[in-house]
Amino acid sequence: MSPVYLWIVAGTILCLVEVIFPVDFVAVVMGLSAVATAGVALLVPGSFALQSLFWLGLSVLSIILLRRFLPRPSRKSILQDAVEGQCLTAILPGETGRVLYEGNSWRAECQDPDVAIAVNEKVYVVGRSGNTLLVYPANALQGRSDIQHPNF
């Protein structure tokens, strides 16, 4: 099999991979680079090693240049959609437990390390530390001005 056909088949497969498994156009760029390498191999026959280096260089250069035009993912926290949750397990003072928040079970700890939260108690999500939610019991918020949240 001629290397030209190999590059065309490889390019087609890489473009189809992007359709099945989207990876931010990386596979498409590599596929188009393979097709371009097939064109170069047709015009300038050479060793397969040189063709592979050309493909690799063209792929990397194209990915770097095209990344500038792709929108960047938003780094906005998804925790700002809702503020209420329900305690699934008791959260003892200074320890962690589980809360039901936006339909999922999350690891949580009380914002105040001296407050315990009972099972099934309504809580407000006041922040996040990594994958741990910082919560405060709803019944303890009356009269507290030091707990701040934009939706309160």
Index terms:
alpha+beta; 37% helix; 152 residues; 2 domains; 3 helices; OB fold (Dihydrolipoamide Acetyltransferase, E2P); five-stranded mixed β-barrel; rod-shaped
Describe the structure.
With 152 residues, the protein is of the alpha+beta class. It has two domains: 3-67, no CATH class; 78-140, Beta Barrel (OB fold (Dihydrolipoamide Acetyltransferase, E2P)). Helices cover 37% and strands 20% of the residues. It has three helices and five strands, in the order αααβββββ. It has helices at residues 3-20, 26-43, 48-67; strands at 84-87, 96-101, 104-110, 122-129, 132-137. A five-stranded mixed β-barrel has the order 1-2-3-5-4. Strand 4 (122-129) and strand 5 form a beta hairpin. Helix 1 (3-20) packs antiparallel against helix 2 and helix 2 (26-43) crosses helix 3 (48-67). The chain is rod-shaped. The mean pLDDT is 83.
